[in-house]
Amino acid sequence: VGVNDDEYSSQPSGYRLEQNYPNPFNPATRIQYSLVERRYVSLKIYNLLGEVVATLVDGIEDAGYKSVEWRAGKSANGVYFARLFVYSETGNVLYHGTKKLILMK
C-alpha cells in the first residue's frame, strides 16, 4: 500500500479552498485553505446578491495550511459563498475558489 505524500507533508502542494465545517452551520463555521507560498490572499463571504457580508482575510499570508472562523452573528438564514483569491506579486490571480455555505438558525 502506497502512502500519499501530500497527506503527510508539512507544506501543501497546491492552493486550495476546503468546504467549510460544519455545513449547514449555526452560529459559526470554520473555513480552511492552503497556500504553497507566501502570497496576498483575500477571503470574503458573499450573500446571494453578490454583496460582501464579511471579510475574513485580506493581506499577505505565509505558506501553509490555514483556518479561519466565520461567526455569522446577525446574518439571515440562507445560502452564502466563501470566495478565496490568491494573487501574485504583480496582482494576477493565481488561484480562486468558491464554496457554498448554508446558515440555519
Description of the molecule:
The protein is mainly beta. The N and C termini lie far apart (44 Å). It has one helix and seven strands. 4% of the residues lie in helices and 54% in strands. A four-stranded antiparallel beta sheet has the order 4-3-6-7, with no helix packed on it. A three-stranded antiparallel beta sheet has the order 1-2-5, with no helix packed on it. Strand 6 and strand 7 (93-103) form a beta hairpin.
In short:
With 105 residues, the protein is mostly beta strands.
SSE layout and pairing:
Elements: H1 5-8, E1 16-17, E2 28-35, E3 39-46, E4 52-61, E5 64-71, E6 78-87, E7 93-103
Antiparallel strand pairs: 1-2, 2-5, 3-4, 3-6, 6-7
The termini sit apart by 44 Å
Specify the number of helices.
Answer: 1
Helix-strand category: mainly beta
Assembly state of the chains shown = single chain
Question: Average pLDDT across residues?
Answer: 92
Q: What does the overall shape look like? A: globular
Low-confidence stretches: 1-7
The proportion of strand residues reads: over 45%
- H-E string: HEEEEEEE
Rg from Cα? 15 Å
Number of strands: 7
How do the strands line up in the largest sheet? 4-3-6-7
The residue fraction in helices comes out at under 10%
Note the main sheet.
4 strands, antiparallel
